[in-house]
Design brief:
elongated; Arc Repressor Mutant, subunit A; single chain; alpha+beta
């Protein structure tokens, strides 16, 4: 996983773009409307997302249609897996502790 993925995802507008694309493909115009940002601003964010491999686009007539690319997100998920396991272990221990306290 590229460290750049974290930097790219740190920006809230880019996360909002990914949230929209998670549901379905969108044209640039539809993204502009949904996010309430200017087209030049959105284009800059889409370029960053594209360069990070998080989105790709295709041309349909005179529109650019964007879709999410799951590869980098799978890498991020794999990197996070041990941390989720760590938290699960700690939360399970807390639950056992609280259960024991409740029994007293």
């Amino acid at each position: 996983m590229a460290a750049d993925t974290f930097a790219v995802l740190a920006e809230p507008t880019r996360r909002r773009v990914l949230d929209l694309l998670r549901r379905r493909e969108h044209s640039v115009g539809a993204l502009v409307e949904a996010l309430g940002v200017s087209q030049p601003t959105l284009s800059k964010h889409l370029r960053v997302l594209r360069e990070a491999g998080l989105v790709s686009s295709r041309t349909a007539a005179q529109q650019r249609i964007y879709r999410i690319e799951p590869g980098p997100l799978r890498e991020l998920d794999a990197w996070l897996a041990p941390y989720r396991a760590l938290w699960t272990t700690h939360l399970d221990a807390l639950e056992r502790h609280l259960d024991r306290m409740e029994e007293r």
